[in-house]
Amino acid sequence: MEQPLILVVDDEPDVAQLLSLQLSSEGYRVQIALDGPTAIDQCRTLEPNLIILDVMMPQMSGFEVCQRIREFSNVPILMLTARAQGDQDVAVGLDSGADDYVTKPYSPIQLLARVRALLRRAPSPKNIIVAGDGSLKLDRQRRELRVEERVIDLTPTEYQLLTLLAEHVGEVVPHEKLLSTIWGSGKESDHDSLKVYIWHLRRKLEDNPRQPKLLLTEWGVGYRLAE
Predict the structure, then answer these.
(1) Strands 77-82 and 100-104
(2) Structural domain of residue 110, as residue ranges?
(3) Is the pTM above the cut of 0.85?
(4) CB within 10 Å: which end of the chain, N or C, has fewer?
(5) What is the chain's Cα-based Rg?
(6) How far apart are CA 160 and CA 175, in angstroms?
(7) The total number of structural domains that make up the chain
(8) Is 77 in the same domain as 132?
């Protein structure tokens, strides 16, 4: 079984590398991000099992990173806070969506124990999602889409859009959530771009894209994948 992937987010390369070595020695896979925007992108594309997130970072604080990630992911987040601002940082971090915290300087034994606890509580990701009458199968681990056993090539944006719909198969996903998650905040009103990508997806998924059976429109609300 593949070991959990942990995303370490810290703007100090030496600190991030040390933490990476500590985690790797326990058998975890580790990816490092040195700034907030990179961390958000890697969370979307890599889908880590856990994020260890430093609070004090330039350009985008750990609090803001946590809030942005919570717009599209429930991945467990462990925040690292400075002891001087411990109580205040903890309160803000938990309000931002963090699951736990460790104050600096931290004990490696304590940190690893918190990591194990969060991973135990985290639900296992559903790697294979089936939609429609079973004709559509999305393998998230292999990043592979099959329709009627045909492998369908998707662009990165199409894959993100389909994955978000597949995570809520049978449910209506509102336009605003699709737009803000895939394209970022401030794009919630760009319905025309969303329609273009939905049309491209339908051309790849449906026998007749003008009469879709898999990717359905809920007029005035959003889109859903047929359960």
Answers:
(1) parallel
(2) 5-121
(3) no
(4) N
(5) 19
(6) 14
(7) 2
(8) no
Decide: 214 and 204 in contact? Cβ < 8 Å: no
Backbone angles phi, psi at 153, to 5 degrees: -80, 130
Q: Are residues 87 and 144 in the same domain?
A: no
54: Cβ–Cβ under 8 A, 6 or more apart, which residues?
9, 10, 11, 12, 15, 62, 79, 80
**Tokens 């803001």 belong to which residue?**
64
In what side-by-side order are the strands of the sheet with 29-33? Answer: 29-33, 5-9, 50-54, 77-82, 100-104
- DSSP class of residue 148? T
| 115, pLDDT greater than 80 | yes
CA 49, CA 175: separation in Å to the nearest integer? 27
Distance of alpha carbon 110 from alpha carbon 56, whole angstroms: 20
Between strands 222-225 and 173-174, the pairing is antiparallel
Averaged pLDDT, 110-118:
92
Give me the CATH number covering residue 57: 3.40.50.2300
Q: What tens digit of pLDDT does each residue of 131-141 get?
A: 877 788 888 76
Would you put residue 72 in left (φ > 0), alpha (ψ -120 to 50) or beta? Answer: alpha
Q: Assign 66 a pLDDT band (cuts: 50, 70, 90).
A: very high
Place of tokens 């809920």: 218
Residue 50, number of CB atoms within 10 A of its CB: 23
Q: Based on the fold, state whether residues 87 and 19 are members of the same structural domain.
A: yes
